[in-house]
Specification:
By secondary structure, the protein is α+β, with helices and mostly antiparallel strands. The chain contains four helices and nine strands. It has helices at residues 16-26, 55-66, 99-108, 129-138, and strands at residues 2-11, 33-38, 44-53, 71-76, 82-93, 112-117, 120-127, 144-149, 153-156.
């Protein structure tokens, strides 16, 4: 199974996300990760979607997305040519006995404690999936109360510009 990360520029209008995600569900494709946000161009949003499958299925996904009216441009982000990050918030039960151990683990992963209460800590970690999964593995022995995890975001390395105003996007 191959992984495909697509950076999709779309018109920022009602129903766009529904149409993009609907394309996946109608064809029985699974979305591993999905994140959406506005860009520096008025009226344009970027959807980053991650899917897995064999080469033929991934190629079909990209072709079908290009047919959607709201899609302006699609860029495939290759692992070695892009930077990928996720954000995760983790609420961990923390007693006086466990608090120091949790803080030590957080420091090792260069994560941050963003909220402290008498009975819990909220940890923020940003990084690639390996880093985030590593932190989760180290916290496995503690009582993780809640996890909130964003979808993958990606941007090309160097001066490559995946935008409608760039030479590549025109």
């Amino acid at each position: 199974m191959e992984r495909l990360v697509l950076s999709i520029l779309v018109h920022n209008s009602a129903g766009v996300l529904s149409r993009v995600s609907g394309l996946f569900s109608r064809r029985g494709y699974n979305i591993d990760s999905l994140s959406v946000g506005t860009t520096n161009t008025d009226g344009v949003s970027r959807i980053t979607v991650v899917a897995q499958g064999d080469h033929q299925i991934l190629e079909q996904i990209e072709k079908q997305l290009r047919k959607l009216e709201d899609v302006i441009e699609i860029f495939a982000l290759a692992d070695k040519e892009a930077v990928f990050r996720e954000l995760m918030l983790i609420k961990v039960e923390a007693t006086h006995k466990t608090r120091a151990d949790i803080v030590a683990i957080v420091d090792i992963f260069r994560a941050k404690i963003v909220d402290v209460s008498p009975e819990s800590l909220v940890i923020e970690v940003t990084g690639d999936s390996t880093k985030i999964n590593g932190l989760l593995a180290m916290l496995d022995g503690f009582n993780i109360v809640e996890i909130v995890r964003t979808g993958l975001s990606g941007i090309s390395r160097g001066l490559n510009n995946l935008d409608i105003n760039s030479e590549e996007g025109q």
